[in-house]
Amino acid sequence: MSDQKLKDPVNPSGPVIVRNLKFHVDRDLCIGAATCVAIAPNTFIMDSEAKAIILDTAESDPDESIIDAARGCPTAAIIIEDTAGNQIFP
What we know:
four-stranded antiparallel β-sheet; 2 helices; 90 residues; iron ion binding; alpha+beta; iron
């Protein structure tokens, strides 16, 4: 893993809250395709197990990029809710 800081070092795959989005990566579903890293590079990075984890710089990516990253995931491993708990994706 790089020296980049994680949003939540204790729970690197989340859940985290960024603005009005609460999201996490389901590590059982994540296959390491890294589509999320390509779409939202300030939000996601792959760990040593090839699982997506969430960076402290996630606020640098717009909400739409984070949602697009979830949509781009081939296994729908990124689960997004609004802060009221309503599921946005998948």
